[in-house]
Amino acid sequence: MALPLEDYALIGDTQTAALVGRDGSIDWLCLPRFDSGACFAGLLGADRHGCWRIAPPAGSVRETRRRYRPGTLVLETEWVTDTGVLRVTDCMPVRSDAPDVVRVVEGIAGEVEVELELVLRFDYGRAVPWVRRSGNGIVAVAGPDAIRLRSSVLTSGQDLRTCARFAVAAGGRETFVLTWHASHESAPPAIDAVEAVEWTAAWWRQWTAGLQAPAAPTRWSEVVQRSLITLKALTYRPTGGIVAAPTTSLPEQLGGPRNWDYRFCWLRDATFTLLVLLDAGQVEEAEAWRAWLLRAAAGSPADLQIMYGLAGQRRLTEVELDWLPGYEGSRPVRIGNAASAQRQLDVFGEVMDALLQAREAGLPLDAEAWALQRALLEHLEGIWEEPDEGIWEMRGPRRHFVHSKVMAWVAFDRAIKTVERTELDGPLGRWRALRARIHADVCARGFDEERRAFTQSYGSAALDAATLLIPLVGFLPADDPRVLGTIDAVVDELVEDGLVLRYRTEVAADGLPPGEGAFLPCSFWLVDALAVTGRRKEAVVLFDRLLALTNDVGLLAEEYDPQAGRLVGNFPQAFTHVALVSSALLLDDAAAGAPAVERASTRREGSGAEVAR
């Protein structure tokens, strides 16, 4: 059975990633890419669906401690047993020829018995490979996939598993390298496990050394750096795409059906990620993402999707895997995502905002990118008045979501700013008129005068935590009574156990049974909203509470279940770590350029915000 999400750590090579448990078991790994079939799918079922455990026998462990090497994605896990201390170092070298998982076992004190169990199952636990011995290890083949394990200890086959039992004394070392390759090709050359660990650590340290100082505020430097490393690990280096999470179908409610595949590139999530990476000085990521966007969005603006595959694929057909029982029985298990066909107007604003921020951070002007933006704006002119599925990908009827309209305003606002601040051209008069019209429409139809708050959608009584972003994107100033009233309403009606719900699932018809955890990005948005409206002490208290939810290696999922005291949803979640970094920078006195401040500061005189006062 899979562990609580808090018990997993992430390793990755910027093309795929694995989850390593406190018990020494790798329970999730898709090869060769984030969106490939899993060869270890025990996370969504049981050991028989694929895992790789190296650890002392469970009954012998008295203490487990683990950490990442500072500034890296190299994981060290130590077990204290009755007979000694054992360390396993896990990493995935940023690849050259092929994806590798490297595990180095070292004796620290005394002598410790170690068990190895490797259960390879391709195609998300469905395909049992044909295994044969090869040199100092094994080769496993099933269909298009092949995996070679090179081991310094002798292994044996038992009940369709590869096993070993050995002892490691203080100063002793055993090494293991698991390598994937296409089954019709020859295996890549062997790598030295110990050298690979050191090289991988050096690669990550070099990357983190390039982070700008404001990205590491004094008070929260360690957790901010860990979040930025996690975001870097979720970028797909060959194309510049940024995945929302490395996992699929981890439930938003334990035992429930809100289980989605997040191994794709949402335009919204990617733009949020881009903003914090830009603030950290990582302009190279911004340039790669802009190139990815141009390729993915090529074609008619009417065909713009809210998400794409790693290389810009459009067809993300949703399929249920009925042979997997799901994480703690949460079914169905899904791959693909039907929400890719939804209309979500907010993505236009997110894209326009991110590209403006990228230019102001030093990304060179690009005529091709501006031509795409002009085409997207022309399409948005014709559809902004129509309903959509909204930021939360409602599977119920389309509605006029307030956040969607606000972000349509952002799209034209950022286009105007771009023309005003660069030599690029555009129909400023028409865009200014549209900006003012959208602003007036939202204030007239999306604001409940009686409750003094913006609602989830026009004519709705439901609230939505996405309205917390209104001052953060510059739609209204932070001291506007409508902003203050909205924050108070969210605190009164959407906060449970100190954390923020996206919306009340029992009130808003989203096409699914009610029930989910508190949405962690929304809780960070409340931190930001409190901070910009002068309630800094409250903001810091909430921020510290949220930081206490990170696991022992600094990772967060999409949501948190206060009743169960558990992280829930896909893990680790880029959106959550982006929001964490943004809040930390906003709260740090030295971080005047925090992403939330930068977004809000794009508002200038004539922005349209003076309409409908």
Characterization of the model:
The chain is an alpha+beta fold. The chain has 2 domains: 5-184, Beta-galactosidase, Chain A, domain 5, CATH 2.70.98; 228-600, Alpha/alpha barrel (Glycosyltransferase). The chain is 31% helix and 22% strand. The chain has 14 helices and 28 strands. The strands form 7 sheets. It has a 15-stranded antiparallel beta sheet that branches. Helix 4 packs parallel to helix 6, helix 11 packs parallel to helix 13 and helix 12 packs antiparallel against helix 13 (574-587). The longest helix is centred in the C-terminal third of the chain and has 20 residues, at 402-421. The relative contact order is 0.10.
Topology:
Elements: E1 8-12, E2 17-21, E3 25-30, E4 38-40, E5 51-55, E6 61-68, E7 75-81, E8 84-91, E9 100-119, H1 122-125, E10 130-134, E11 137-142, E12 145-151, E13 156-158, E14 161-169, E15 173-182, H2 193-209, H3 221-233, E16 235-236, E17 241-242, E18 265-266, H4 267-279, H5 283-296, E19 307-308, E20 319-320, E21 334-335, H6 346-360, H7 367-383, H8 402-421, H9 428-445, E22 447-448, E23 453-454, H10 481-494, E24 495-496, E25 499-500, E26 518-519, H11 520-532, H12 536-547, E27 559-561, E28 566-568, H13 574-587, H14 595-600
Helix pairs in contact: 3-13, 4-5, 4-6, 4-13, 6-8, 7-8, 8-9, 11-12, 11-13, 12-13
By DSSP (H or I, 4+ residues per run), the number of helices equals 14
Question: Class of the largest domain in CATH?
Answer: Mainly Alpha
CATH architecture of the largest domain: Alpha/alpha barrel
The CATH topology name of the largest domain reads: Glycosyltransferase
Report the strand count.
28
What is the makeup of the main sheet?
A: 15 strands, antiparallel
Work out the helicity level. 25-40%
Q: Classify the oligomer.
A: single chain
